[in-house]
Amino acid sequence: MPPAQVEAPAPPRTRYVVDGHLTFAPVGTTAADALRFTEAAEGRMALLLFPSPTPAEIDDLAAAWGLHPLLVEDLQHAGQRPKLERYGDVLFLVVRSARYVDEAEDVDILEFHVVVRGEAIAVLCQDGRWIDGSDESQLPGGPDGPPADESTLLDDEDLLRLGPEAVLYRLLDAVVDGYAPVLRGLSVDKEQIERQVFGGDAAVTERIYRLSQEVIDLQHATSSLTDVLDSLRRGFERYGIPEALQSYLQDVADHLARVDARVEVLRDALSQILSVNATLVGQRQNEDMKKISGWAAILFAPTLIGAIYGMNFDHMPETHWALGYPLALAAMVAFGVVLYVVFKRKRWM
Description:
- This protein is an alpha+beta fold.
- The protein has 2 domains: 13-280, Beta Polymerase, domain 2; 281-345, Magnesium transport protein CorA, transmembrane region (Methane Monooxygenase Hydroxylase, Chain G, domain 1), CATH 1.20.58.340.
- 55% of the residues lie in helices and 15% in strands.
- The chain is built from 10 helices and 7 strands.
- The chain has helices at residues 31-40, 55-65, 69-76, 150-153, 157-160, 164-177, 179-199, 204-234, 243-309, 324-345, and strands at residues 13-18, 21-24, 44-50, 83-87, 90-101, 106-117, 120-125.
- The longest helix has 67 residues, at 243-309.
């Protein structure tokens, strides 16, 4: 029986940078080739993009770059919150971008893993929806936000001369800026929900719960990313980060702080809307119960009269009285009218 053939890993999309100038890597350049390119001379950098990394591609990257087994395990498994870890001279970063899908009122979260070793940086899209220059709807920033493809990450020669950290910070900037259109979409949904709540729409509760879940998912991405930026800033002096990049990251942190505050306000607003909706639903139920109770009381009086005179006893007053039947009907109607007037004045009807 012939041995099973193992499919060779596809080479990543690789771009080279020499003294800040972008050049294209030869077709078929591997992760090992990119690392050797950066180590061959000063002022060189390589960016590797994995649009939809397979286990074989990750294993090839790990072998070429000598990655720690724990780091490789993280690369093989998506669904992680933003975090920053260092394994010797290797920096590992998890970031989560977001885009708003208006048709489904959904926040689409995309997870990216970033590995930096020396002057080489690899970006892996764990959701398998990385970008194609012709389809900006798949970009981390969304159709309304800044794209984060290689043309954006590598378009500033002055920053690129500062090393792979410049690419990393540009990616973080694109991710944070991409949160803005998401918040705009969620805010519009919140305003629509407010109108539904005060309009008495019975289906609004489910919409509030769904939107709250989307806001919580976004908050998980933004709050965890705040910790990542704090970790990067704490390493400025230790790793000799240029002052220009320090200022750049500080600007990203300021933008993220505003985003995080807006997400918190939005979550609190939805919580208040849910409470208001519950109160209004309770009030409407009370009004319904008043009406039900009022009609039950109105029907109870003639039912009581009819029940008494419907008993089959020989000796009952007015049983053989000629006017007994019409007077009994009149009493039923009179009781009903009186009770209706009373409940109407009390606004139960």
